[in-house]
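User: I'm putting together a teaching handout on how sequence relates to shape, and I'd like one worked example. Could you take RL domain-containing protein from Monopterus albus, show the sequence you're using, and then write out its predicted structure as tokens right after it?

Assistant: Happy to. First the sequence, then the structure tokens directly below it.
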Amino acid sequence: MSMRNLVSFQRAMALSFAVYGLHARGRGILVNCFQNIDTFLCRCIGTNAVVARNEATRKDETDEKDERKPLHAVRVERQEQAERSVLISCHSGTNEKKFLKYLSRHGVIKKYFFYESYGVYAVVEFANRESVASLFEEATIPSVSNDSIVPFKSRLLSLRNLSSVDSLNKQSDYQCQPQTTIPINELIQKLSREESIDHQMTSLTEAYQLTEENSRLRFLVCSLLKDIAVAYFPECTIKPFGSSVNGFGKLGCDLDMFLDLDGIHGWNVKMPKSGLSLEFQMKRANSERGVTQSILSVVGECVDQFEPGCVGVQKILNARCPLVRFSHQPSGFQCDLTANNRVAMKSTELLYLYGELDPRVRSLVFTVRCWARAHSITSSIPGAWITNFSLTIMVLFFLQTRRPPIIPTLDHLRELAGPADKSVIEGNDCTFVSDFSKIQLQTNTETLERLLCEFFDFYATFAFSKMSINIRKGKAQNKPEVAPLHIQNPFETSLNVSKNVNTTQLQRFVALCQESSWLLHQSESNMPRDGETATPWGLATLLLPSQVTGIKSCKKRRQEPASERIRSLLESLKGVPVLPHQGG
């Protein structure tokens, strides 16, 4: 087989393994079997048979997706786990076996893990809540000599070792789960060792996405805060939303929380036509916004004064969406708590649904977000930069424009919705189907590499000056207002989610799309290299900070698409290992 045919075969195979790797972990035997079959087919039959097998695999995966849980079901399961869990601060020399033996006296432990954040912590989930109550009965209030104690009993506990000092000096035998992403230079080296761009994108997604443990910790923090709020609203819940649960969250991302009061019994109850009835006496306010501000003010004060581990509490009540912001040191999370942000909750559900429909969605979103952050297109500091939410909508819109489309439009999802899916929030139609089995996807077998190249091509030539991005329709619309970048809010359709972006930042984005497209189309940059050194190639070259030095205006970039600077860069990459550098 010629080298050209071998490369074509490898690229044709890349998507099936990238997709299978994300959604069939633990089934290594079956993957190895497919690899052996692929080798046999390549030698004896040809790539057509392999493509046919890939399509059969994709159909089988589609059938499996019908069993996927909607987000509300995932939330319920996670919340129940959190209610049975405690967060324990441990000393560095904690013996894992002794630790578990001690806690097991209170009940069966279903799950536990250790992590580091301002010290070593353990999350322990028991089989039932009675075990937590038993633990509380044994726990004591700390005795201090100079300070006074606020006697609020939280499920955040400290492990004390009353044994000899020598036992503290022993080497710990536990492993800490990572709670942050690897540095960008380590990521580039990791990607440089992959066999294809598809594998690079899959590897990046696996390295960046939230882990099972990190997700559990986020729900546990919400549960700990709910223990404060129930003193005033016994039937309330606190739910994570946004990147913490929509499937696109990166390790280390902020924790956005919603104080949900809609579950309180007594709302919209039909009054009897005759006889006697009782109703609660309650305070009245001039507006729902005023109620939200009052509730957050009180809860924020309680978090500040009573909740251990919460520092830097800020009550930002005059914002468009009032919130309480603070740092939760035991988890390391930067937290925002809101109480009237239901549209954002629906947006979270929508992004989760899109991410579950096809694994390529998440891989492309994670890749584009990482690329954007590496080149300072996005930033953690508020400003004129493009936000992660805007970038995600841009990726979804691009996937809707493929032929055939990879994901359906929001209007189509609305057409498939049943009566239980109907949702109108403050006059905004937020209705869309939640049952995966009702969504029939069209067959599109484009590889991740092809989609990444086409994404850059698509937005390098997009008519930003005239057109708006609209995932309801799945096609560009005329701009309803003057703005450099217009992306229609999926539910609050009169709003532009990218209103903050200025012309300079949009031009940088377009210029980088042009440059990245050019790089990916060069044979020197999208071929794996032999040798022991991890020389950047493919996706790894797009993450090198040196590529964005001296980005000119879009007009000038069009005049010299193959600049001498990029040619020199590609030459320098031949045989030069990755150098450490700072990046986000």
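A couple of points you could highlight for students: The mean pLDDT is 84. The chain has 19 helices and 13 strands.
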